[in-house]
């Protein structure tokens, strides 16, 4: 009898999900160079332009851990929307990979299937303003603000990067090696907006202040920002 | 003593479970079957992800006719999509939106959407559930934010209750709003025109209609393909760009110059009711459309190969074709009381057959 009763209790307990012991907490820290990026503050970029970002958001998905001998395990099936204006969005609790982690990999962007399957919920709810309603598809990453370098109304720049179809697919895979001997459970990933402008492609606000549709510019920006991440050293 | 306590705890647990089943989870909305008209292909809409239910359709209908989905309360879906025009903007080349603005395209009729893969004249929207987001948030249409729409609906007890009956609980979110709207517009099936009755062997064409059908099969069906009277492709039919609207059509979506001024082939079902015609409503009558095909069209480098020499039509052919096109008017559909604003089904007048 006692046994049955305790089994009942166990069943009830099983329904509760507690944070997993040994799980990884991934924290995203948005920066402009060495300074923490706070929307509304003004920064000088590496290319000399002065910018005041208003919005900086991007989707992270397919987070994986890879071991030193090449084993790889998925840590989550979710999409996360990292928003520089919302500190809660910058912390992601993940499961325990079960082995020492040598590398973290993730995709910046939204799976193509989610771009063609109607209206999603949670982080992918179109109400977050990361969805193009007239040309279906997610904005994978967005950087908006003002800059004296801009020659358009309000001295603005708005980069909405998206596109999920073949040659215009803007999802990018990012792989980050963990430095030896660092804490495996609290990993801070730095995202530096300088890479948007000074990556493989040189993008100047003065000549290219706007990206609002899939295509070549969106692909160039995606290539650039795929290199904006690094692991913070303790 | 200990034993008794355990038994009591177990009984309480069982009761709690039973209560949980009863209160929240026993309830199921009433499924509604989607009928495929005889001889039509399988629909492309994924009904498994959004099964039709009586409650879901009723909720979608209420939302479709509710002005609160717009910023100032004036522009419901139904204000631009009117039943007597087969859900186009009747007699309007462009539709009226928020703050005296106009849309940049002609509102097409809404019917047989379950068989359509892409939406809008340029095919920019890839799923029916996503379609409502475009007018809701466009400054020249309903001009509202999704957050505000959700806030307004949540404040209304009637809606909280209806979302619960349709989806099992009171959660109101983007997905549920758009799925309910889809459920309603999916029921807008038009398959009871005289043409359909003739095809089913229940009626016969009079001579001009019959001759018109023959001409149609020769000159029009490669694009306006039966039974939908469109093959859902995008084509350049030699319509020059309006200097004010500057609408590049399909090219806006694909970015390819080969798609310049291509627009989706529109269905011709209910075409007798859906004037004005063309993606920007520039033709006010069928006669103007025929004049375009045979005379005024501008043949461009990417104009459809079928139209390189325009589309020769004699006056006689135009007369017969017109007679045939009018047989595509589905008067049952245009008057179906299930599709009007909620409450209108209490109107007990039977649909009157209408042949203009």
UniProtKB/TrEMBL annotation, chain A:
InterPro entries: MbnP-like_dom. It holds the Pfam family MbnP. Residues 23-213 form the Copper-binding protein MbnP-like domain. This is Copper-binding protein MbnP-like domain-containing protein.
From TrEMBL, chain B:
Binds 2 heme groups. This is Cytochrome c peroxidase. Keywords: Heme, Iron, Metal-binding, Oxidoreductase, Periplasm, Peroxidase, Signal. Gene3D superfamilies: Cytochrome c-like domain. Its cofactor is heme. Pfam families: CCP_MauG (PF03150). It is found in: Periplasm. The lineage of its organism: Bacteria, Pseudomonadati, Bacteroidota, Chitinophagia, Chitinophagales. Residues 337-356 are annotated as: Disordered. Binds 2 heme groups per subunit. Heme c 2 binds at residues 220, 223-224. InterPro entries: Cyt_c-like_dom, Cyt_c-like_dom_sf, Cytochrome_c_Peroxidase/MauG, Di-haem_cyt_c_peroxidsae, MauG/Cytc_peroxidase. GO terms for cellular component: periplasmic space. Its main location: periplasm. It comes from Sediminibacterium ginsengisoli. Heme c 1 binds at residues 77, 80-81. PANTHER family: BLL6722 PROTEIN, CYTOCHROME C PEROXIDASE-RELATED. Residues 196-329 form the Cytochrome c domain.
